């Protein structure tokens, strides 16, 4: 039996402790748990936005420009693109080609690819002014590199991400730049009038229409660049695979190269097989054209986690050690895409892709 | 108290339907902060879910990814794979409410940063003791905690599916759809976590221990979440939250009733407990067939 004095002291101490804790909690309701320095929850992701098609107009042969209206839209910088969710559920990426200062609408342009994967056909034939579409983004994997001078090479509809870059660069007095803009015919090349005005009279813009002038002379372009422009000139190129590969092969030493390829399959109508190296397991696998990285990996490592197999739940995210990823998910942020991928839907642009598995 | 797994429960297991994640999305522009009109206390008591679930369900996924190699049953593995995707979507869907709360003048970050700490650090992969056995013990402990929490979430899911009083009070339809879509999937997959726990461990002492830990942790987090919201709500003159306020709303059907909770919570400890006895799969499936978000997700997937 404890003595009454002990009881009284314990009860008193308990009361005091209770009051102290209460007061502490009243001062700050979140006492005493620690917090994570960089919180994960509630970080704004690129949320889906519902926009209205305000204008749907043909701006060149086979090219439709869409103006998508909303309110207080997220800002973007030249080179950024949107994921456009079409009424059928198809998701396609289109470069923003409007004015970055406009926070009430986004502008994109798309060329009809008759034998493509169906996205451009839907934009051309089924979208109408007044319809609602869902977009995600904007995201930027083709940002303007800071440089003392710029060379832009655009092939056809590849002018779309280049156009806002041109406007930004040409607005800065004293900044040197060149543009080579190629296409099948002048009638099929969008924004030609504006571009020729930007470079009016000083030879900075070269327009090459295949039906009149043949293929663009990249050798001459880069010979001129090497002669006239300073070390560290940035070369930005967007266009079909053949063009980007040709530019890549000719870029002079000391120049910074930024490429934006059209999504593989957008014009060829199918995916290609590629190789995946699993660095930690020391194995190399082949992913067939009609298969996925996940399927190939699971054949080797059956306990690899996955779930939705459609690129939205994020379970199959894996670290990418090397390689160029064609991201086809609808979840990852730019920062996450820089070092990881969802292996259930995303593919490699070229072999090999190296995963930390 | 023995520590051996229990015999399999005797009742009929319903026919097997594969679980799949649904790609839902909600737009929060039209939802007010007090989405149960004129009742900040009820709104915020339920809003606490948005504080706990983004980090909590992300943690479920993180733990379950590690337990996959321990599963020796293909059907259970398929269930766990489906469960993981559903939980990942729950986490994302509730996470998207948080920026909306911030825009409505109530920044949840001070609280969610703590919940993040709890799940990423305290309940993360690092354990006090080194070694394989300790790591496995810690993994199994967390699997058991998830099974216990899923007992509570199945109860809440069943409650929200039947909370017609919220409709009568004119609660925001988007928020109700989020909660009921989530609740229906919790009811739909309510057996997976418990089946997994029994498959990989199933010890009764562990079951009791994690039941108690989960209950205390949820009570602790929930009450401070409500206090946090009520203290930081931009609306003037909000009353302090009290247990009585909770009890009264439980009686009216605006929140789970204290009595039903007191009955449901200990059922987890029954020797013949199985989650399939709780809630109704038919009702959950029926709701998912009519939920605006789930229907839109199905259309997108087709």
Automatic annotation (TrEMBL), chain A:
Cofactor(s) named in the record: FAD
Keyword Ribosomal protein: no
Chain ranges of the 2Fe-2S ferredoxin-type domain: 274-357
Protein name: Iron-sulfur protein
Any Pfam family hit: NAD_binding_1
Keywords, alphabetical: 2Fe-2S, Flavoprotein, Iron, Iron-sulfur, Metal-binding, Oxidoreductase
Domain FAD-binding FR-type: 46-145
Iron as UniProt keyword: yes
GO MF entries: 2 iron, 2 sulfur cluster binding; metal ion binding; oxidoreductase activity
Taxonomy, superkingdom: Bacteria
UniProtKB/TrEMBL annotation, chain B:
MF annotations from Gene Ontology: hydrolase activity
One Pfam family per UniProt: Metal_hydrol
InterPro entries for the chain: UCP07580
Key words, A-Z: Hydrolase
PANTHER family on file: METAL-DEPENDENT HYDROLASE
Protein name: Metal-dependent hydrolase
Species of origin: Streptomyces lacrimifluminis
């Amino acid at each position: 039996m404890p003595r009454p004095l002990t009881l009284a002291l314990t009860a008193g101490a308990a009361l005091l402790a209770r009051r102290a804790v209460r007061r502490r909690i009243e001062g700050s309701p979140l006492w005493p748990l620690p917090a994570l320095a960089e919180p994960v929850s509630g970080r704004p992701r690129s949320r889906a936005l519902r926009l209205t098609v305000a204008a749907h107009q043909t701006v060149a042969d086979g090219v439709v420009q869409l103006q998508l209206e909303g309110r207080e839209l997220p800002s973007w910088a030249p080179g950024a693109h949107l994921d456009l969710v079409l009424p059928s559920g198809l998701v396609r990426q289109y470069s923003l080609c409007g004015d970055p200062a406009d926070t009430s609408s986004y502008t994109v342009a798309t060329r009809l690819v008759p034998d493509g994967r169906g996205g451009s056909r839907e934009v051309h034939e089924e979208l109408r002014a007044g319809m609602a579409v869902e977009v995600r983004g904007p995201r930027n994997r083709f940002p303007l590199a800071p440089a003392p001078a710029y060379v832009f090479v655009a092939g056809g509809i590849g002018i779309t991400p280049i156009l806002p870059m041109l406007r930004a660069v040409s607005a800065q007095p004293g900044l040197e730049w060149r543009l080579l803009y190629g296409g099948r015919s002048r009638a099929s090349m969008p924004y030609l009038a504006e571009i020729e005005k930007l470079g009016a009279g000083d030879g900075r813009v070269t327009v090459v229409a295949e039906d009149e002038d043949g293929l663009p002379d990249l050798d001459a372009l880069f010979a001129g660049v090497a002669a006239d422009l300073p070390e560290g000139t940035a070369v930005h190129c967007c266009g079909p695979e053949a063009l980007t590969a040709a530019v890549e092969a000719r870029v002079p030493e000391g120049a910074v190269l930024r490429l934006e390829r059209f999504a593989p399959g957008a014009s060829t109508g199918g995916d290609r097989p590629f190789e995946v190296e699993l660095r930690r397991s020391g194995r190399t696998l082949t992913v067939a054209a009609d298969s996925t990285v996940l399927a190939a990996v699971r054949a080797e490592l059956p306990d690899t986690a996955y779930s939705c197999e459609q690129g939205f739940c994020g379970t199959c995210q894996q670290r990418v050690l090397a390689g160029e990823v064609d991201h086809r998910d609808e979840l990852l942020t730019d920062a996450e895409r820089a070092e990881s991928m969802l292996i259930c839907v995303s593919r490699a642009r070229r072999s090999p892709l190296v995963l930390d598995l | 108290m023995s520590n051996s797994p229990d015999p399999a429960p005797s009742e009929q297991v319903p026919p097997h339907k594969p679980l799949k994640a649904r790609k839902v999305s909600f737009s929060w522009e039209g939802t007010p902060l007090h989405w149960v009109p004129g009742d900040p206390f009820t709104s915020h008591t339920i809003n606490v879910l948005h504080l706990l679930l983004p980090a909590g369900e992300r943690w479920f996924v993180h733990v379950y990814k590690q337990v996959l190699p321990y599963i020796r049953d293909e059907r259970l593995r398929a269930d766990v794979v489906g469960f993981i995707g559903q939980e990942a979507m729950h986490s994302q869907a509730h996470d998207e409410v948080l920026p909306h709360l911030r825009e409505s003048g109530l920044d949840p970050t001070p609280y969610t940063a703590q919940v993040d700490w709890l799940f990423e650090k305290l309940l993360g992969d690092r354990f006090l003791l080194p070694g394989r056995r300790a790591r496995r013990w810690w993994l199994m402990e967390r699997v058991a905690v998830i099974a216990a929490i899923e007992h509570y979430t199945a109860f809440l899911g069943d409650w929200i599916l039947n909370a017609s009083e919220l409709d009568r009070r004119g609660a925001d339809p988007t928020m109700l759809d989020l909660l009921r879509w989530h609740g229906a999937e919790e009811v739909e997959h309510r057996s997976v976590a418990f089946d997994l726990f029994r498959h990989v461990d199933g010890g009764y002492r562990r079951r009791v221990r994690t039941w108690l830990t989960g209950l205390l942790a949820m009570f602790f987090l929930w009450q401070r979440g409500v206090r946090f919201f009520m203290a930081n709500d931009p609306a003037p003159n909000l009353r302090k939250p009290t247990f009585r306020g909770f009890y009264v709303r439980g009686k009216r059907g605006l929140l789970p009733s204290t009595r039903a909770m007191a009955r449901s919570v200990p059922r987890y400890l029954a020797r013949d407990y199985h989650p399939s006895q709780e809630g109704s799969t038919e009702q959950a499936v029926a709701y998912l067939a009519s939920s605006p978000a789930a229907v839109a997700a199905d259309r997108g997937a087709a």
